[in-house]
Input
Amino acid sequence: MQTMARTRIMVNDVGFYLAQGQDDTDLKNRIEDAVRSGGEFVEFVVVGNRAVSVLVSASTHVVISVENVEFDPRDTGDGGAPYGGEFDLL
Output
């Protein structure tokens, strides 16, 4: 079985799994920058190749974790090719 690393970000108790190719170090830096600036939207792509924007401020609680999961070839991080949920019905 082929595996891949899956990064999960929790924002105020709401969880998102990052799509493959998302740079978690860059995301952490952008979150820190948003806090330092007094708050701003931080964007990232989640599993299903969907774009998410989260308003991050000093009161936002963020937890990032990484786990190994079975490889999913659809998880490319390409926002132009969404899948899952409503997108699978098209």
Notes: The chain has one helix and five strands. The mean pLDDT is 85.
